[in-house]
Amino acid sequence: MTDIAEIRDLRVTFATDGEPVHAINGIDLQAHAGEVVAIVGESGSGKTVTANTLLGLLPETATMSGAVVIRGREGQQTDVVHATHKQLRAMRGRDAAMVFQEPSTALNPVYTIGWQIIEGLRAHGKINRKDARAQAIDILRRVGIPDPERRIDDYPHQFSGGQKQRVVIAMALVLNAGLIIADEPTTALDVTVQAEILDLLRRCRDQFGATIVLITHNMGVVADLADRVIVMYRGDIVEQAPVRELFAAPQQEYTRELLAAVPHVGRGKSSTQDPALEAPASPPAGSLVVADNVQIGYPGRFGSAGVVAVKGASFWIGPGEVVGLVGESGSGKTTIGRAMVGLTQVVGGSMTVLGQEMFHVKPRHLRAQRADIGFVFQDPATSFNPLLTIADCIAEPLVVHGRASSTAAARGRVNELLDAVRLPTNFGDRYPHELSGGQRQRASLARALALDPKLLIADEPTSALDVSVQAKVLELFVQLQKELGFACLFISHDLAVIDEVADRIIVLQRGVIREQGTTAQVLNNPADPYTVELLASLPVPDPVAQEGRRADWEKARAVSRGQ
Amino acid sequence: MSESSRDLPTPKTSTLAAIPPQKRPLKDRLPVISQLRQSVGLQRGMLVAGLIIVAVFILIAVFAPLIAPFGWAQQKLPDGTSFGTQQPPNATNILGTTVSGFDVFSRVIWGAQTAFLVIVAGIVCSIFLGIALGLISGYFGGWLDRILVVICDAIYAFPSLLLAIVMTIVISRGQSNLWGGVMATALSITVVFVPQYFRVIRAEVVRVKQEPFVESARVIGVPTGRILIRHVLRNSTRSLPVVITLNASESILTLAGLGFLGFGIEATQAAEWGYDLNRAIADVTSGIWWTGVFPGVAIVLVVLGITLVGESLNDLSDPRLRKRRRAGGAA
Question: How far is CA A74 from the centre of its chain?
Fold first, then answer.
């Protein structure tokens, strides 16, 4: 078997304002012809740097040494580390191509997709306009774009996220590149779309004979697609093994920990809850949030009708209960969470939060109840004011609501809170950027709990975190919820995460509730075809089980689409 | 999952706590100094050159009474002998004298003081109003924002010099004394630069107000005033230094322009480079170069120095434009 890509003793160092950062410390790896090699690792492990090195896409601040050899289909060899710009340009596209994480930014919005595919063709050799167009249409059909003759003249914004990713893959395939580097190709996509893109990548390997280097942090994706897995940690290769071997018997401690941390549907509350337990049919007494056919939307400019994101939802959050709200992007799950604190407007129906009707509410009426609601944002990196210390940020609610006269006076309570979220108290003197993602999310939790809220709204609190960190934060969350007994709306796109924390689940699709019930009910016996598809699309971190699930998924998709 | 079973090689929170949190030293937090420290190569050269020119200019402006050998309107030595008009550089008047018999060197030095005053007045007048309007307009949006943006666009169409001429007439009824000239320039600069500050701050505020930390402040129930000052404004001043330097050089150019057109400050009231240039036009044809060259060079140098500082700050504050020392370790 020939090696399509070969890396020997690669070292990459970045110049920064401070000390130089050693991103890769001498790694060796090969990608054999016709296989899918997955490089997995947490953020900062150097997996994306490795991928970019394969195409010579590192920024000017990087210094490389070692050898990176790419072999083309016609036997050309390019050593990326020592190649000239011209050699690199000839190699890119012809021998190796890239599929990026975010398809919406990988395509140029001002040109049609046909133009962009043809541009790649024309950059590598003479081809007349008609042939190029015919080739572009052909490749679009083969990646599963319906009606390619017409859609070739459409602009990127006219495609959905999954279709855009198909177009990006088409651009990689059209020059018949032997090596496709897919950098987190499905991270920005919903699970149902992710399953389809993974299916397409599998066909790239089987039908086009491409070798795929897959960069991902998602163990489910690895189990679904990869033939061989390389685990990286802080610029070093920890372990490499065929996929079944790695999942069945990981050799290294780090790999074992990584696999153990991956959340898994069926391991959380769905397995411990009493399956016979029925969810009440109407809001129990003392419910904190009661929504009755609520519509939530964004007003248009100058009083014109805007967008209604949630089209009539009825649900409630009982005292001390954790409600998981699941849905894909655009389902309106975040909109519901934000409406509860008045960040989005209720435009119809009724929603009472802690006894306050949110329809036509004025911001000043909300001030009193702000103290009773905590909010944890998705991205811990941006939810802290970068110029204030962590202690200042956590003290802010205490100062504003008059529980402390100044930031300094609040320090006692701040230390208690830091302690509760298992952060050392002297972290209070640090600035947000001096904390890691997981630590910041703990601090965010501390801020949300500062005033002992009755209701906590957590908007995808772990989706920006690495799996091992996510596991710890979730563990902490469940523990704090038990101790303090607050009710919680937990918003997530990940059913496995919801399974860990939620007592009851609401499944949302395009602003409509498809199903709600106890966690055991929804995850073990889903009633709605959409929930079934959602569950089937979720790849499980086990290559053997995943193979069986793939057939289920195809069935579920047919049912869900058929109706 | 018990705590002991998770033993990832990531540094644990408890071990991290042993390292005391580091506060960045003061020299790394001051705006210009920190950028000077992180600059390298050509960018550093530009910044240093600009800073030296500006520092020399400010020193000259502050110590003008000590440096200048004569007053700006002095035509005679204390013993009563006149300098003579249009004298070439000599021992008494090291840069020669003007057509009115003033000492060129003294007038260039005193001119720095006038230029410095106009910079300070120009910045002070526009910065507060511009920032306040930008903050309110950007944060609240709505009809107020739309109106302010349209007004600012309209003001871009105004030539600042024409405005300055009108201002001189309004302020001092055409009589050009020091404060009349300085304030006329400063106010006309204000009209042009309030929109600049407004735009820069507004753009930043619009960006910052969508950041989750501002939303989190709103959710916590922080009063709007506190959000504006504590959370939004402090994070929106990134590009301010660049606009300030633009503002400063524009102030000098407008003052010089006014003087050159004859609307500036009269020679007996204060020394002003533009006025001297105006008076030197006739000299050029008769081969008298020293009356025009020195005030002209002074204007060019000060504007150059300020622009160099502004440009370098702009490049250095943007990580994509900032050059770094190459990492040597990998080779």
Answer: 37
Count of beta carbons in the 10 Å neighbourhood of residue A419: 12
Do A260 and B8 make contact, defined as CB atoms within 8 angstroms? no
pLDDT at B1 > cutoff 60: no
Please give the DSSP secondary-structure letter assigned to residue B91. S
pLDDT one-digit tens code per residue, A235-285: 889 899 999 998 888 888 888 888 888 888 877 777 777 777 777 777 777
Domains A3-111+177-261 and A262-272+283-372+456-464+476-520 agree in fold = yes
Q: Is the dihedral of CA A143, A528, A503, A381 positive or negative?
A: positive
Question: Which chain B residue's Cα is nearest to A26?
Answer: B330
Are the C-beta atoms of A66 and A81 separated by less than 8 Å? yes
Place of tokens 């996929």: A243
Model confidence pLDDT, tens digit, residues A452-482: 888 999 988 888 788 888 888 888 889 889 8
CATH superfamily of the domain spanning B91-206+233-317: MetI-like (1.10.3720.10)
Are B327 and A366 inside 8 Å of each other by CB?
Answer: no
With CA atoms as reference, the chain A residue closest to B325 would be A15
* Domain locations along chain B: 91-206+233-317
**What ipTM describes this predicted complex?**
0.73
Q: Is the dihedral of CA A220, A469, A380, A287 positive or negative?
A: positive
Record: contact B14-A65, CB cut-off 8 A: no
Q: What is the DSSP letter of A92?
A: B
Answer whether residue B147 shows pLDDT above 80: yes
**Fold annotation for A262-272+283-372+456-464+476-520:** Rossmann fold (3.40.50)
Q: Per residue in A291-310, pLDDT tens?
A: 888 888 887 666 566 788 88
CATH architecture, domain A3-111+177-261: 3-Layer(aba) Sandwich (3.40)
Contact assessment for residue A461 and residue A446, using Cβ atoms and an 8 Å cutoff:
no
Q: Is the pLDDT of residue B10 over 60?
A: no
Of A16, A257, A475, the CB nearest to B8: A257
- The full set of domain ranges for chain A reads 3-111+177-261, 262-272+283-372+456-464+476-520, 383-452, 528-563
Rounded to an integer, what distance in angstroms lies between the CA atom of residue B254 and that of residue B272? 12
Distance, CA of A497 to CA of A474 (rounded, Å): 8
Least confident of A173-177, B10-14, B58-62: B10-14
